[in-house]
Each structure stands twice: as structure tokens, then as C-alpha cells.
């Protein structure tokens, strides 16, 4: 949130659009999460909010980064992050493979494949929209492209892994002698 508001002030809706158009590959947030977080950051003094009347429509709330917010952002940027853990609920189902109904398993894994293919298409759209000429970008403009490229690689790896799982499951038999 602080990063998006450092670039330019905005409403909750503006921030949601920024997440959906450019940050979707690194962070996802719902409308409700954004508004809760904006309120929390305002209460902490990291943001200020200006309410602008809009006639017949509800007032528009525009959020600005405060000096304290800029300092908090600088502190966060300067502090090293630990490697994130891989917490994927799907993996737990693999430990109950024999109890996982064959059809439910097949459906879940093939639906995941489709979601990942859709994600790759979204990444391609983002790459075309934001990074179509990487050679002309400044280092600061190229930096977010690195996260996009990682997202593309991770998604491609997930797809390859799913293909292996589905191929292995269809070539072997369950204890119940049902093919996957």
C-alpha cells in the first residue's frame, strides 16, 4: 500500500486498480482488505486522508503518504526479508492421496492447470502493457519486470509439475485399482 501511494496519492479504488493491473503477480488484495489496511495505516499516522465531496455521489477519500509513512516505507525497504515459506494447502492433500477421491483429485488438479494457464496469460498481458520495450526502460522501470519474469517462471514450473503429477497418476493405479 505504501509503495503504491508513494508513487501517487489515490483512493481505495485506485489502489485496487494498481494491484490488479500491475501488482497482481506479487500481491493480491481484496477490496475489503485494502479499505481495512488504509484505515489502519491512517490511524497509525502513516497515511492522511482527504475527503472530497462529489455532489450527489458519496464523498471521495484520497489517501496520501505522510512523512511517517515514507519513513516506515524506507525502513521496510532497508530491512532484509527472510525467505518466505511454501505454504500451499494443496500439498496437504497429497499426504492423504489414498483417501482423496479420484474424480475430485482429477478435477482439482485440472482446474488448477487452467487457473495457472490463465495466470500466464495475465502475465503476458502485463508484460505487453508495461514492459513491451525492455531495452528502453530505466533500471527503476525494469525492476518490477524481474518480479513478473519470476512469476512467469514459477507458474511455468507449477504447470510442468502438475503435468508430471497427472501423467504419473494416470499411468499408475490406486490401491482401489481405479486409474486416475
SSE diagram, text form:
Blueprint: H1 2-7, H2 12-23, H3 31-43, E1 47-54, E2 57-65, H4 67-78, H5 89-94, H6 102-131, H7 139-171
Antiparallel strand pairs: 1-2
Spatial sequence of strands, sheet with the most strands: 1-2
Order of helices and strands: HHHEEHHHH
**What's the count of strands?**
2
The parts where pLDDT drops under 50 for at least 5 residues are 174-179
**How much strand?**
5-15%
First-residue to last-residue Cα separation: 44 Å
Question: How would you characterize this protein structure?
Answer:
With 180 residues, the chain is mainly alpha-helical. It folds into 2 domains: 3-78, Arc Repressor Mutant, subunit A (Orthogonal Bundle), CATH 1.10.10; 89-171. Helix content is 62%, strand content 9%. It has 7 helices and 2 strands, in the order αααββαααα. It has a two-stranded antiparallel ribbon. A hairpin with a 2-residue loop joins β1 (47-54) and β2. α2 (12-23) crosses α3 (31-43) and α6 packs antiparallel against α7 (139-171). It is elongated and about 65 Å long. Residues 174-179 have low confidence and may be disordered.
Amino acid at each position: 500500500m505504501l509503495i503504491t501511494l508513494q508513487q501517487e496519492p489515490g483512493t481505495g479504488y485506485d489502489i485496487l486498480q494498481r494491484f490488479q493491473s500491475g501488482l497482481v503477480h506479487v500481491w493480491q488484495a481484496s477490496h475489503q482488505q485494502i479499505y481495512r489496511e488504509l484505515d489502519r495505516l491512517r490511524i497509525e499516522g502513516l497515511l492522511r486522508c482527504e475527503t472530497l465531496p462529489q455532489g450527489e455521489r458519496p464523498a471521495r477519500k484520497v489517501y496520501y503518504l505522510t512523512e511517517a509513512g515514507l519513513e516506515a516505507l524506507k525502513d521496510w525497504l532497508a530491512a532484509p526479508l527472510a525467505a518466505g515459506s511454501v505454504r500451499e494447502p494443496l500439498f496437504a492433500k497429497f499426504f492423504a492421496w489414498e483417501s482423496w477421491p479420484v474424480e475430485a483429485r482429477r478435477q482439482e488438479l485440472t482446474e488448477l492447470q487452467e487457473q495457472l494457464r490463465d495466470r500466464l496469460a495475465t502475465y503476458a498481458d502485463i508484460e505487453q502493457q508495461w514492459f513491451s520495450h525492455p531495452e528502453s526502460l530505466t533500471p527503476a522501470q525494469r525492476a518490477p519486470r524481474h518480479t513478473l519474469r519470476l512469476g512467469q517462471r514459477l507458474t511455468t514450473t507449477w504447470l510442468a509439475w502438475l503435468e508430471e503429477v497427472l501423467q504419473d497418476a494416470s499411468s499408475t493405479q490406486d490401491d482401489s485399482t481405479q486409474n486416475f
